[in-house]
Amino acid sequence: MNKNITDVKGFKCWGAHTGVKSMKRDLAIIYSEVPCVAAATYTLNKVVAEPLKLTKKHLLNRRAQVLICNAGNANACTGKQGMRGAVAMAKTAAKMLNLPVEDVIIASTGLIGEPFPTEDIVGGIKENIPKLTSRGEAGSFVANAILTTDTFAKEGFVNLTLDKKDVSMAGIAKGSGMIHPNMGTMLAFIVSDVNIEGTLLDETVRECVRDSFNLITIDGDTSTNDMAAVMCNGMAGNDKIDSKDHPSYQPFKEKLLELMLHLAKLIVSDGEGASKFIQYTVKNARNEKTARKLVRAISSSILVKTAMFGRDPNWGRIICACGNAGVHFNYKKADLFIGDPNNQVKVLEKGKPQPYDRNFIKKLLREAHIHVVLDLHSGDAEVIGYGSDLTTDYVLFNSVYTT
Amino acid sequence: MNKNITDVKGFKCWGAHTGVKSMKRDLAIIYSEVPCVAAATYTLNKVVAEPLKLTKKHLLNRRAQVLICNAGNANACTGKQGMRGAVAMAKTAAKMLNLPVEDVIIASTGLIGEPFPTEDIVGGIKENIPKLTSRGEAGSFVANAILTTDTFAKEGFVNLTLDKKDVSMAGIAKGSGMIHPNMGTMLAFIVSDVNIEGTLLDETVRECVRDSFNLITIDGDTSTNDMAAVMCNGMAGNDKIDSKDHPSYQPFKEKLLELMLHLAKLIVSDGEGASKFIQYTVKNARNEKTARKLVRAISSSILVKTAMFGRDPNWGRIICACGNAGVHFNYKKADLFIGDPNNQVKVLEKGKPQPYDRNFIKKLLREAHIHVVLDLHSGDAEVIGYGSDLTTDYVLFNSVYTT
């Protein structure tokens, strides 16, 4: 079996069914035997769900020991009733585990604006905290308990050796609708036994989220509940990573980014109704900001996304999307390639359409994984982003979500 | 028959088939017997089609006498070959009509990045300029000659009396895909016999475009070719409108806005694959900029658009879209209404969900014309925008456009 959260030293978890969702698990609990340093990034939507407001406050001290997430009700636009529910969740867990309430991270996902079913969820917490375990199956239960419209659970595990100590990291995520860059992302929870200083972890999480979850897009909307949280309990016993110059820092950061990127790609693969996974590379841009904005503009354009669904090498839409990105863009310098790296077709050279075999390129676009590479010949910045196509299934699915 | 461009004093036009499009008319010519003051707004896309670059230069003197537009080839991303084509169009028309080349407005619409078929189009201009006429049917021909994926021609006519003189305005437009606010808009050509000063016309056109074409959205992309041009030949003989304080200014501006709004709504009605026309009102906002950004965010959200297609009163998506608008937004002050003004249902009051009859609201959402009203109770600014739903037909249609 693949390793999961339960294989990280000191962590236990459980995923249970409280009844908020009719059939599936809807309550996730992740617990560390000892206090962790913790950091999180949050949605940039101006409408912020109640649990995120609470978690932001709790994480001011960069410390946490347990994370509780319910699925089925987002506890967003629920006002005081919702905030009371989030507080009740935290208090219940803190009391049962004998922790300060500030050491509890709360998250929610599901429908916006429904009254929050505090009683069911608090009851579920009471019933399930005693079930916390490091048995392997609990890792799968907790990964499933945070899902909503996802079609599969998203899990990842990486490890490395620091100071001859084995250091592990495991994570779970949920995605599906409303995935977009430039946000605190959808839900992703990562735990590690690495020994690291809190403010450094905070900064590192921000940078890794920027280079992973913030480079994916499904439908261009940012939800009220998006959050990525990382908890590190130090039980691996490595020499504490206390600065970017520490010899363990880069190896740790690379692994964290690898794990986040793995989860981010799983989210794109499971985008609502998506039939294709598309990797967009913008290279040799004048600077990173320009490359990021272009990746985002192309991957978010619904005209590009529908063309991908239709296996249509419509480079005009890609160039047009770049022109709308709000950054400097000179198409006359741009080369554009479609296909995978071993089977690339150059469709534009210095802005000029190139002759290509239309049947061959349509064959390339039939693949489930498509590469689009835009070479700007204007500098040396490169950014890679990931997106899905826009399908008739997506529209059908999203036209009937609440009803 | 409805009045059209040929009913405006001094204007003639013609719409012809040059062969760039296989079956339909694809060349539009609008001509005034005397020189006009003229103004235009253009796409904000960084990739600007060649004809727009030329027209911008030509209109520096705010004067024009003929407008030529071809459909089927956008003359965008065509580089020097394309610019030579646009210049050839202007020179051909100028020579035949004995005008300075700067008095020619050039526009194009169609596929991006295909070599420009200069010879066909120049041949078409030569053949069809002699056919310019003020006979009524030419108005319909010219309205049809600028279309691409539109399913019907978009025309409008308004008139008013200024200084006891009859003043007329007529316009044609094309839309369909790639319609979005905050741009120089898709194609709209308006002619009038009003007597007005050039710089004042320029400013007025900008303001009216902002309050009409820039408040509509279909799919959030802005094309390389969008342009709205207005030509006024002064033949109505009214006292020249030379300032905003002139007694004729407001009546004239109101009529111009009425005509633009009429054309803008026709464009939304004919949005690719759209099944619904949705009017979004944001009222009592703290200022106009906030209201505009909120209208745009809601009407562009593909989650809101798919909900409208699915007749789903998913107010959570509307609130979430507002949170992503990048402006101050306090949902706790917001009332939200769905339905038409005579049959409104309040779904949110001060951010709190209100009980409503789900079957009744689903019936309201079955209408082809839907009203969404967001009352922010935060000031007195109001902006109304227009959008379409996102349908499975849209996706199917756009997945096979070039192929």
Largest sheet of chain A, in brief, is: 8 strands, mixed
Label the structural class of chain A: alpha+beta
Q: What's the overall average pLDDT of chain A, rounded?
A: 90
Largest interface: A-B, 66 and 66 residues
The 3D shape of chain A can be described as globular
CATH evolutionary superfamily of the largest domain in chain A:
L-amino peptidase D-ALA esterase/amidase
* Helix-strand sequence of chain A: EEHEHEHHEEEHEEHEHHHEEEHEEH
Number of domains in the coordinates of chain A? 2
Number-wise, the strands of chain A total: 15
Q: What's the end-to-end separation of chain A, in Å?
A: 38 Å
The level-1 CATH class of the largest domain in chain A: Alpha Beta
Oligomeric state of the chains? homodimer
* CATH architecture call of the largest domain in chain A: 4-Layer Sandwich
Our count of helices of chain A gives 11
CATH topology of the largest domain in chain A: L-amino peptidase D-ALA esterase/amidase
- Helix residue percentage of chain A: 25-40%
β-strand amount of chain A: 25-35%
As a whole number of angstroms, the C-alpha radius of gyration of chain A is: 22 Å
Spans of chain A with pLDDT under 50 lasting ≥5 residues? Answer: 178-185
